[in-house]
Amino acid sequence: MIDTALVSCDDHLDLNMLPEDVWSSRMAARWGDRTPRVEQKEDGPAVWMADGESWGSWAGKRSSFAGPKPIHTAYDRGGVEDLTELRAGRPQLRLADMDRDGVWAHVVFGPVTSIKTRDEAFMRACYAAYNDWLYEDFCSAAPDRLVGVAMLPPYPEAAYDELKRLALKGGVRQANLQIAVAEPRLEDKRWEPLFDLLEQSGIILSFHVTVFPGVTKAFDKYKGSPGATFLHAKMFIDQFLDPFVDLFAWGILERHPKLKIVIAECGVGWVPWVIEELDYRHWRLWECADFWADKGGIPLKKKPSELFREQVYGTFQQSPTAMRLLEFWGPENLLWASDYPHPDSVWPNSRQAIGETMGHLPSATVQQLVGGNAAKLYGLDLSKATVRATLPIGEKAAA
C-alpha cells in the first residue's frame, strides 16, 4: 500500500453543467439576445441558445426522460441521480466529488466545441467570457486543486489574441486547441505567432478529443445501432493523427523547443508505432542528404523520438496497454486521468482502477504517473495536498 496525492489530468466541465449566468454575467450588453442563455422548450429539455442556434442541453432543470439510458456517465455509476445540482460546475460540489474519489486536483477542460457561430467578433467574446468565468469564478475557489484549461478559438489570429490576453492576466497553466476543428492545418505559418507566444509565456498547449457534430457526421447513418459504439475508437485516433505528425514533419517542435504539448483522451497505445515510423522516415531523409544539399538542405535535425520525449505528454485512464508501454513513454511523459464525469470516467472508483492497472508496478513509478509528473508539468506543490489516496500498490506484484 502507498499513500499519495492524486492529480487527474483530464477532467471536464461541459456545457450541460455550467451555471446559467456564465455568459450573461460577463458579455457586453451590445450582444443582447444573442448572448448564450438557457431556454426551456415546451415539453422538452432545457437547452443553451446563442445567436439563434442551439448549443446543446442544460442539466439545471429536471428532464422528463424516463427509462433505460443508451449511455451511462460517471454520475450514473456513482449513484448521483439529481443532475440539476450541476456538480461539475459548482466548485464546492465538484471538490466534494473529488474528495469522495480521493483525488487532490483536477485539470479541467471546458466545453470548447459548443461555441458555434459564424460571427468572429461574437465567437471571440464568447471564448473570452468563458475563460474569465473559469479563472475568476470557478478555479479561484481552490486554485491549487482546480487547474483550469483555457479554451482557444480554432483559428490562428483569434487563438493568438485570446492567449495573449490571458497571458497578460496571468494564472493560466494550459490552453486547449480543439484540434479536430482547427483551421488551417498546423503547417500554415499563421500558427507561428501562437507557438512563439506559448513558448514565451510557458503556457502548455493541449489537443483534446472532441465529439463535435461536424467531426462525427460520418456516424450519422449508424445512429441507433449497437455497432456505432465501436466507431469512437477510430474517431479518437482519426482526429489526432494528422496534427500529431505535423508537429514533427514541419519542424514545429524543433523550432519551438520550449513548447510543451499534452495530447488528451486519444489513447496512448498508437503513439509508439507512429514515432518509430517517423524515426525511420527521418533516417531515410538523411540517408539522401546529398540530394537535398543544393535544395536548401534538411531543416529537421533532431530525431522525432528525441523531440517527443522532451516535449510531448499523453493522458490515460485505465489502460493496461499504457502500462506495457512505460519503457517507451518514459514514464515521465504519461499523465493519469479520471475523466470525471464523462462516460469513460473511473470516478468514483479511481483508487480501485489504479490498483487494478498499476498494482504490479514499483511504488515510485505509480507516484509519478498519478501525480508526480503532473506536479512537475503544472508547478503543483503536492506536499500541501490535504486529500491523499491509499492505493493497493505492490500487493499484486506476483500476479
UniProtKB/TrEMBL annotation:
Hydrolase in keyword set: yes
Keyword 4Fe-4S among record annotations: no
Residue ranges that the Swiss-Prot or TrEMBL entry lists as coiled coil: none
TM ranges: none
Alphabetical list of Pfam families matching this protein: Amidohydro_2 (PF04909)
GO cellular component: cytoplasm
Residues covered by the Amidohydrolase-related domain: 121-380
Keywords annotated in UniProt: Hydrolase, Lyase
Alphabetical list of InterPro entries matching this protein: ACMSD, Amidohydro-rel, Metal_Hydrolase
Top-rank taxon: Bacteria
GO molecular function, one term: carboxy-lyase activity
Protein name: Amidohydrolase family protein
Record organism: Croceibacterium soli
Organism taxonomic ancestry: Bacteria, Pseudomonadati, Pseudomonadota, Alphaproteobacteria, Sphingomonadales
